[in-house]
């Protein structure tokens, strides 16, 4: 009998994650804590995390939801609005409560209604971030209804990101969940390493936009930014698997109840936490880049953010026969269902769990 192929890497971090609060938080948190040592937690709750006080309360809610054997550190973000108080932001950052600030263009995605309406409205905040060295995490899509939905990211780069970086050249920026060749080209060509980075999700690496319509409309493949063309998928695969330091993992795991995804005007967001690492490993294996998996999952992010690499390790193993993961959905404490991703694609990899859920 041959031994299964395994790969052991420093325990990964998730540089972009939605945990929600209340019942959903309780249901999803164990899946992230099992595989990731730290995660940058997005602030787009129904009542967004717009002050340091709310970030403290949210951080406490997360740590209270952890069970004893879980060692997981949430890295908290502040949701920027037109009215963000720069002194509160400064205090939160200097006290170590806030890790980064998150820019949602108003209306771009889930719970972004209170986001920034015009980038000019936060000039003093951007200036403050730059002076503090506090990272700005960006949902990089325009909301202009005259722009084609699939071009929202590329147009954002030209209209907002290029001028922003000219005006604030020292600002540390992460373009979250990049989906296009345009974004990869911009980031690799413009970046003085260390100032501009990008996260990449498992779903944008695994699927192109055909998956939205395969056999009928597929609400569980709807996310924001929306899936793109195959040429875009190939570009982000090349970026992720290159080992280049500006690209790192951010799952954008974004749980919504099944019922909310399957209704008319269903929510955008894909719950990938349980199978995210297996999906990334699959992509890297197919690209012949397993030797660079640790860069993307475990070392590029800490280097970019100036944090230590995790001392703990995690092992993945290759199955003899690829299989669609068994766990197809999870339940909240109330019994509401949340569908996991991927739900139909066979994967050859799985994490060897230390504490099976
Ligand atoms: O697909 C997404 N879901 N993209 C986002 O930007 C937000 C997220 C969510 O919160 O559901
Ligand atoms: Zn997100």
Keywords for this structure?
357 residues; alpha/beta; TIM Barrel; eight-stranded parallel sheet; three-stranded antiparallel sheet; globular; binds (4S)-2,6-dioxohexahydropyrimidine-4-carboxylic acid; binds zinc ion
Quick overview:
With 357 residues, the protein is α/β, with parallel strands linked by helices. Helix content is 33%, strand content 17%.
Structural write-up:
With 357 residues, this protein is an alpha/beta fold. The chain has a single domain (6-355), classed as Metal-dependent hydrolases (TIM Barrel, Alpha-Beta Barrel), CATH 3.20.20. It contains 11 helices and 13 strands. The chain has helices at residues 22-35, 52-65, 86-94, 123-132, 152-167, 181-190, 202-206, 230-241, 258-261, 276-286, 293-305, and strands spanning 6-10, 14-17, 38-41, 73-79, 98-103, 136-138, 173-175, 196-200, 247-249, 313-323, 329-331, 337-339, 347-351. The strands form 3 sheets. The protein has an 8-stranded parallel β-sheet with strand order 2-3-4-5-6-7-8-9. It is globular, with a radius of gyration of 19 Å. The two termini are 28 Å apart. The mean pLDDT is 96. The chain binds (4S)-2,6-dioxohexahydropyrimidine-4-carboxylic acid (DOR) and zinc ion. The site of (4S)-2,6-dioxohexahydropyrimidine-4-carboxylic acid has 11 residues, from loops.
Q: Give the helix proportion (percent range).
A: 25-40%
Distance from N terminus to C terminus (CA atoms, Å) equals 28 Å
The hetero compounds bound to this protein are: (4S)-2,6-dioxohexahydropyrimidine-4-carboxylic acid, zinc ion
How many distinct domains? 1
| Radius of gyration from CA coordinates | 19 Å
Uncertain spans: none
Q: How many strands?
A: 13
Number of helices: 11
* Biggest sheet features: 8 strands, parallel
Overall pLDDT, averaged? 96
């Amino acid at each position: 009998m041959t031994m299964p192929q395994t790969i052991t890497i420093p325990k990964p971090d998730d540089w972009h994650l939605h945990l929600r609060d209340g019942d959903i938080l309780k249901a999803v948190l164990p899946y992230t804590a099992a595989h990731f040592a730290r995660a940058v937690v997005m602030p787009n709750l129904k009542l967004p995390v717009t002050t340091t006080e709310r970030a403290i309360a949210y951080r406490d809610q997360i740590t209270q939801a952890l069970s004893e054997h879980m060692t997981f550190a949430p890295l908290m973000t502040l949701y920027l609005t037109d009215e963000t108080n720069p002194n509160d932001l400064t205090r939160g950052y200097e006290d170590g409560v806030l890790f980064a600030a998150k820019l949602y263009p108003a209306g771009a995605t889930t719970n972004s209604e209170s986001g920034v309406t015009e980038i000019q409205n936060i000039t003093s905040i951007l200036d403050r971030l730059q002076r503090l060295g506090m990272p700005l995490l960006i949902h990089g899509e325009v909301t202009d209804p005259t722009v084609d939905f699939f071009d929202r990211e590329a147009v954002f780069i030209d209209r907002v990101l290029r001028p922003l970086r000219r005006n604030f050249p020292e600002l540390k920026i992460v373009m979250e969940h990049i989906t296009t060749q345009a974004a990869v080209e911009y980031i690799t060509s413009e970046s003085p390493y260390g100032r501009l980075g990008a996260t990449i999700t498992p779903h944008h690496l695994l699927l192109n936009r055909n998956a939205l319509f395969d056999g009928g409309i597929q609400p569980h493949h709807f996310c924001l930014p929306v899936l793109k063309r195959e040429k875009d998928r190939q570009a982000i695969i090349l970026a992720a698997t290159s080992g280049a330091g500006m690209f790192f993992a951010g799952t954008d795991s974004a749980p919504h109840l099944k019922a909310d995804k399957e209704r008319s005007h269903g929510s955008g967001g894909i719950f990938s936490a349980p199978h995210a690492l297996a999906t990334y490993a699959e992509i890297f294996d197919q690209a012949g880049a397993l030797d660079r998996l640790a860069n993307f999952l475990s070392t590029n992010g800490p280097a970019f953010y100036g944090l230590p690499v995790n001392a703990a390790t995690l092992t993945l193993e290759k199955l003899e026969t690829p299989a669609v993961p068994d766990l197809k959905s999870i339940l909240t404490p109330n019994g509401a269902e949340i569908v996991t991703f991927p739900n139909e694609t066979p994967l050859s990899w799985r994490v060897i769990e230390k504490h099976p859920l």
